[in-house]
Amino acid sequence: MSEDPATEQLAGVYDPRNILPPAGMDSVWHYRIKWQKGAGVDKPSLEKIISTHPYLLLTVETWPAAGSNDNVLKAMLDGNYDENIQSLGAVLSRSGQETFVRWNPDMEVPVHQYPWQYQSPELYIRAFNYFAARLKKLAPNTRLVWAPAGYPGDSEYWPGGEEVDAVSITFDSPSELAAGSDSLLHLSNLDVLQRKLHRMRFMDKPVLILSANAAIHQAAMKEMVAEAAKNITVYNTTIYAERNFNTKTQLPARHHLLIGVFDPRQQLIAEPEIRVEHVFTDWGAIQRGEFEHKFNEVMQRHHDIIVTMEPWKDTSGQTDTAVLRNTVQGKYDREIARLYATLAKGKQQVYLRWAHEMEIPIHRYAWQSQDPVEYINSYRYFAKFNAPRTGNIHYVWGPAGDRGSADWYPGDDVVDYISIAIYGLPDKNITDPHQQESFQDIFRRKNYRMRFLNKPLFITEFGVKGSEDFQDKWLADAAKTILQNRHIFGICYFNLYDNPKAWGDIKAPDWSISKNSLKKFTDLLQ
């Protein structure tokens, strides 16, 4: 075991509910304890540290034995660090002082800086709670700190509030610097802080703000925390309102599965199994009347409709790179009003989806790689737009289901369904159809990311490429998964090739299936 002063020191505290004692927080010392599998705890050294510093933050790291590649999370669950926990607990209990203990930080950052990174969230959570429960039983005065960097996807590793007393986030953590997060390069320190705090909105715990950046002093951080808190307060009744994040209710179960297609070539829409059609539209299509024409055609077929509103491409031909902000400022009110006027004429059910796949850190769409708060404001503006409407509109929040999706959740009051996209190809560099992931594997990963959000799912896009035999096997697996997950209320197959511009020099995948494959698939869903 080794004990060293940590490079990251406590620079500030975000504690709007005043849970932590204010006295002493400015003089907390941070030490890092490294446990190597098979090595004991140096109790005298640890006791000296505790007696010297009455306000203490300890970061405990678990490492494999020298020369070993053992999984440290499994080793924790197997009891290989139990003696270390016993020793630490005994020292902390005898001290009688309140000590903060972090365990295996930066777990969510996708790098190999530490041996507990690039592990499954479920395994990390089980190991964290194992450590936390045993330590607290031995030393009840200990405050356990869950310690992500504050990187996108951190909420996947949230172990729940039962054992956690506080959360920590870190400025310029070694892991985040190693990850080379492009999203942080052009942001101010205040913007970085606000995004990291925004990612903690489901946790409802005080946040310790650590910094490895010596240029950020406590006084400057206090000012930033005060400014961030003021900015968050602006949205206390919307983005951060507790009533808009009901994480405890049971997911509803479907009575009937809605089956649909995105099928612009109209190869499958006449099949008797199809009850819903998917239409993508943009500002220009609304301005030219093209959307109204498509909508009326769907209504004439007596199908329900998914409308994905892509807020770009107006008749000027110019991409609005500030489309989210401009939407909230009213630039597109005329188009939104015309959209709602068209929808109000229909008698079928409308599933309305705004600016999908917003969380993917790319620039395929103008609303991607943006501030989550700005996206949420635009979604809420669109959903609550003052226009006559009928009761047949259902609002669909449509992330792809990638890491960090929950950061963009706009609130229970404006979401009826969550949609995710499930396509067999996990990476555009894969051209062999047989290397596609199964529907089940993709669904399990993406569905887990929605665990805070108790809304039913409508899978508005899914597809697989390859031979008909391969597609049939993939779809059979999909049918099995859909039947097992009764919070899936609807599915919609993407019966077309993808946009070639998004695939560069590689031929865009064609997800189209035959009528025969559709029939086999829907028969399995009966």
Automatic annotation (TrEMBL):
Keywords linked to the UniProt accession: Glycosidase, Hydrolase
Entry annotated with the keyword Hydrolase: yes
Organism domain of life: Bacteria
Gene3D superfamilies the UniProt entry points to: Glycosidases
Active site, renumbered: E357 (proton donor), E461 (nucleophile)
SUPFAM superfamilies: (Trans)glycosidases (SSF51445)
Sequence ranges assigned to domain GH26 in this UniProt record: 133-526
Family assignment from sequence similarity: Belongs to the glycosyl hydrolase 26 family.
Listed name of the protein: GH26 domain-containing protein
